[in-house]
Amino acid sequence: MTITSTEPSVAALREALSSRIARGMRFAGLFAAHRNGGITLSAHAAGPDGIDTLESPLPPGAASYPALTPMIDAAFWYERVIHDETGLIPQGHPRLAPLIAPGRPEDHALPRHVAGYGLFTIPHGPVRSGVFESMEYLVETPGEAIPHLNMRIFYKHRGITARFAGLTVADGTLLAERAEGIASVAHALAYCHAVEAIAGCEVPVAAALLRVVHAELERIANHLDVALRLADAAGLAVATARFALHKERIMRLVGELCGSRFGRGVVVPGGVSAFARMRPAEILAAIGPLEKEVTADAELLMGTSSFLDRLRGTGPLSPDRAREHGALGPIGKASGYADDARRARPYDAYPLLSADPVGQRADGDAMARLRVRFDEAAEAFRLIPQALSHFPERTRLTLHTPCDPANGRAIGWAEAPQGEVLYDLTIEDGRIAHCQPRSASFHNLVLMHEVFAGDILTDFPFIEASFGLSVAGAALLWAALWFWAALWFWAALWFWAAL
Amino acid sequence: MSIWVLRGLRDGVVTTRWPRKPDQYADSWRGPAIVASGAATSEAVMAEGVELEWLCPTGAIEVIDQLRVDQGRCILCGRCIAARPDLFAWSAGATGPTAAAVVRPALVVPAQPETDQAVAAARTALARRTAALRRSVHVRHVDAGSDGSEEWEIQALLGPVYDVHRLGVFFTASPRHADVLLVTGAGTVGMSGPLRTTYEGMPDPKVVIAVGADAVSGGLLSDRLSGVAGSVPVDVWVPGSPPSPFALLNALLIATGRLGPGAGR
Fold first, then answer.
1. What is the pLDDT of residues B119-178, one digit of tens each?
2. pLDDT band at B244 (very low <50, low <70, confident <90, very high)
3. pLDDT (tens digit, 9 = 90+) per residue, B5-38?
4. N or C: which end of chain B has fewer CB within 10 A?
C-alpha cells in the first residue's frame, strides 16, 4: 500500500519527488523528524496506488540542506515549518519567515512587500473570530484593491505533533480528534487507518459502514457552515438562519447517534466504539426531510442573484495553479483538480458504495467552490442511505477487532470536508514514537496568497469563507458588519422619513 | 428576495424558550463525568488509588482522601465510565445554577468543603461588578488556541435555535464595546499577548468566561499548556469539550447575574 524509499541525499530526494510529480502524482507533504539519532526529511507523494514516502536522513550535524521549494512550489510552507521546528536552513528558500513559531520582535513588525504611493498594511487579527488556526491577515492595499496578502498562523500553534510522542495508541485517537475539532471524524479515521495498517487488522463491515455515516454527516455539517458564512457575508439574514438551522439539526443528529455533537469517540483503532443509538430506519427517517430542506434552500440560494454577484469571479484559483500545488478537497475540485481520497485511495466502506462523483468545475471562483460543496453535501445525503442499507440484519454485530500494534510505521489518510487528511505514524513498543498530522487546511491555506487578482476589501470575507478553512465565528467578519451598519442606517432613515 | 421571507416562515419558531421554559435538549445533555453517588469514599476505592487515576488521559481523576473528578479537565471521552460504571457517571443537563463555576476548585466534584466560602465570596464580588450591565451585554470572543469546535458552538448562539439576541446579548467586534470576554483554547504562547491586550482594551466592569476544558485546564495539552487563567483573570469557568451552546447561554446569564444571586458553584 505504501512504499517507503530512502534516498542517499536531499538532492536525490528532490529528484525522485519531482519525477513522481511529473508522472502525475501529487505532492502531499514534507516534514522533518528526529529519527535514529538524526534528522530525517520525509516527503509524501499521493498517487492512485497509495502514498509514497521518500526519506532522506541528513548527515549528522547538518545545519542546512538544499531547499525543495525552488523546484516544488507547494513545499513553500512546509519548509518554513521545518525551519521553525528544527532550525535547519533550507538553502534557496524564497522567504524563510517564521510560520508556526512566534518569532523575534522584529518579525512582528508589519512587513511590506508592495511599494508605491499611498500603500499601507491593514493588520487583521489575530483577535478575530479565527477558527482552528487563529491567524492574522496582513492586507497590503492602496485603499481598495488587495495587491498582496500575508498570513501569520503562529499565534495558535499548539504543538500537537510534539504532544503525540509517547502517548498510547488509544490516547492518540483522542488527540487526533482534537487536532482539527470540526473534522474530528476525518482526523480520527486517518489516524486509525495508520494504526490499522501497522497492526494489519481488518475493520468489520458494520464498523466501516458506520464510519462512513459519521464521516459524511461531518461533511454535510461543514459544508452547511460554509454556506451560512457566505450567506452571512452577503447579509442574507434568512439564508444565514436557514443554514444555521440545518447545521444545528445535523449536529443534533450526530449527537443523538453517538453522544457527541462532533462525532467524537466513535472511531477507534480496529472499528468503532459502539453501534449508533438509533436504528438504521430511524436515521433514514431523520435524514430524509433534512435532505429535502437543504436541497430546497441550496437551490434558492444559488438562484439569488444579489448573492451570486458577490461570488461570481471572486477569488479565482486557476486550474494550473491548483494542479501544480495539488489543491485538496473542494478548492481543488472547483479548479478542475479532483483527488478525492475516497475514490483515489478508497478506505472503509467506500468501495461498497456508489455515488456519482462530484463534478469538477473549472471556474475556480468562490461560486464554483460553493457549488462543489453543495454537490458534495448532496452526494453525502445519497451515500448515507446506501451505507445504512448495507447494514447486516443481525442484531449482534461485530464492531471492533483487537488492534494493538507493537512496532512499525504507516501512513493513514481520510477525506475530510476540507480535503485529504494525512497521518504519518510511527509506533515503537506499543506507544507513539512520532506522529505527524497534516490537515488539508494547512496545505490549502497558502493558496489564499494567490486568489486576490483584482478583488477588493469587501470581497475578502467571501474569499475566506469560500475556502472553508477557518470555519467558526464568521459573524464578526468585516463585510457582514459593514452591511449591517448600512442596513441599520437606511432603516433609521426610513423610520425618520415615515415620521 | 421575497421568496426568502416566505422561506423563513416555513419551519415556524424554532428558537428555544429557555430560560423561561425548560428545554428538553438542554436537560438531556450529557456533561462531564461525575463520581457516582456513594462511591466516593469506599475503602475499595482508596485501595485502588492510582489505578483509578490512570484511567483518565487528562488526569481528571484524583484519589487523595476520597475519589474526586476534576470536571475542568474532563474531555468527555467516557473512558472512566466505560471501565468503572460503578464509580463514575455522566452528569446530566447543560443548564442550571451549578452548570458553571465561579471559582476553579468548584469544578472538582464532590467539592472540597472549603470551596463553599470561596464560592460565596466570588458570587458576591461578581454580582457587585455586573450589576450595571443589566439587560444589554456585549460579548467579545477570543480564541487562544482552541481546536475549532468551541467556535462552532459559540457561533450556534447566533443562529435561530439559541438566538442570544433575544436575551439582550450581542457579539461585538471591538473590545472597547465589550462587557464579557469569552475565551476558548488551551492558552497558546502566541495568543497570550493578544489575549491580554484585548482584556486590557475592555472597559470596566468586565467579566471573563473560560469556555471548555481546554480553556480551563489545557485539556489534553495540559502537559505544556495550562488554559487561559495565566493571561486573564477568569470569573466563570465552563466545563465541557466543547460545552453545549446551552451551557454557554447559561454561563452568560450567570456572568451577568441573571440566574439569580445563588448562581454559579
1. 999 999 999 988 888 788 999 999 998 988 999 999 999 999 999 999 999 998 889 999
2. very high
3. 999 999 999 999 999 999 999 999 999 999 988 7
4. N
- Three-state DSSP state, A279: coil
For chain A, counts of helices (H) and of strands (E): 16, 14
Task: Compare all CA atoms of chain B with the CA of A274 and give the residue at the minimum distance.
Answer: B82
**Nearest CB partner across the interface for A130, out of B1, B143, B171:** B143
Q: Of B139, B150, B152, which to mutate for an interface test with A (greatest number of A Cβ within 10 Å)?
A: B152
- Residue at grid coordinates 448573492: A307
Give the separation between CA A393 and CA A214, rounded to whole angstroms: 20
Question: In this structure, how many other beta carbons lie within 10 angstroms of the beta carbon of residue A113?
Answer: 13
In chain A, the number of structural domains is 2
If you search the block for the grid coordinates 450595571, which residue do you land on? B132
Residue B63: burial class (beta carbons within 10 Å; 0-12, 13-18, 19+) = middle
A456, A194 Cβ separation under 8 angstroms: no
Fold for the domain defined by B104-255: Rossmann fold (3.40.50)
Nearest-Cα residue of chain B relative to residue A482: B173
CATH number for position A50:
3.30.460.80
In a domain, A232, yes or no: yes
Residue pair A76/A94 in contact (Cβ under 8 Å)? The answer is yes
Q: Which helix (H) or strand (E) holds A435?
A: strand A431-438
Sign of the four-CA dihedral A347, A349, A354, A356: negative
C-alpha cell at A401: 477487532
Task: Provide the shortest C-alpha distance from residue A422 to chain B (in Å).
Answer: 17
ipTM of the complex: 0.96
Task: Kindly indicate the confidence band of residue A492, based on its pLDDT and cuts at 50, 70 and 90.
Answer: low
Q: Please state, as a whole number, how many other Cβ atoms lie within 10 Å of the Cβ of residue A44.
A: 24
Greatest CA separation for chain A = 82
Structural domain includes residue A173: yes
Q: Whole-angstrom Cα distance, residue A177 to residue A185? A: 7
Residue A197 and residue A206: Cα distance in Å, rounded? 19
> A16 with A37: CB under 8 angstroms?
no
* Amino acid in position A145: A
Locus of grid cell 490537515: A439
Task: Give which of B13, B23, B149, B226 to mutate to test A binding, by max A Cβ within 10 Å.
Answer: B149
**Segments forming the whole domain that contains residue A448:** 160-479
- In sequence order, which ranges of A326-365 are alpha helices (DSSP H)? 329-334, 341-344
| Low-confidence winner among A446-450, A458-462, A495-499, B176-180 (lowest mean pLDDT) | A495-499
Do A89 and A220 fall into the same domain? no
Tell me the CATH class for B30-92: alpha beta
